[in-house]
Amino acid sequence: ENPAFLNYGWRLAILVGAGLLAFRSFLRTKLIESPDFLALKEKGYVTDLPVKSLLLSQWREVLLAFLSVVYYRTTLNFLVYPFLFKFFAQEGRDATAVLALGFAFSVLSIFLGALMTFKLSWIKVAIASVASTSLTVPLVLLDDPLTLLPLFVTSSLGWGAMGYMVGEFDPRHRSTGTGLVFNTSDVVPSVLSVVLLPFLKATYVGKPLVTVVIVEEAVILASLFSLFLIRRKKSTTEV
């Protein structure tokens, strides 16, 4: 309804993202390396090609970690946000309040997940998040913006615990491994959107299609399975 917003409004998000990227890059230059990493660096254990070294030595850990976190990206970027845009576009369906509440719930859930990790392991919190997300995903078939609120909560809960995943990599690969996992997981929602574009178009002009929900559930199942494998490996190592 607003041509100016349609033509230029979307650019604001890109500008904000660019500003955050510049700020993050600045902060990265000010970070102090951990003592164990500095010790490895002094001994010459830090390579000039950390990604190559990481993939050669811990490719299984990278793959499992990637599959473990990808559910969060797809739940919000592939499922929740596009559906909210659909409700925005529909006449008489104002989803502004839902979006605001969703962001608020998401932030609170992230902090709650981080706090729960101090009492429980990050894997237990993540498993609870993934399992509860799987149960709430079918609610989108009701075609109501309010049904998206539980997804903000359940998916974000595990995201608050995922920062502790860094311990799954050895000290010389912690920063590289964590960055690689989180950054590559951002690509998955875009790939799914392109591959399933016909289904998404049909969904956004009509009722939600079961196909979209099935794909999301498959991603969630992969995350859940990966978390159980990580948990099993940790239990075996501790024994």
UniProtKB/TrEMBL annotation:
Keywords: Cell membrane, Membrane, Transmembrane, Transmembrane helix, Transport
Gene Ontology CC, one term: plasma membrane
Localization (cell): Cell membrane
Topology in membrane: Multi-pass membrane protein
Domain of life: Archaea
Spans traversing the lipid bilayer: 6-27, 62-84, 96-115, 122-142, 148-167, 179-197, 209-230
Name this polypeptide is given: MFS transporter
Species per Swiss-Prot/TrEMBL record: Candidatus Aramenus sulfurataquae
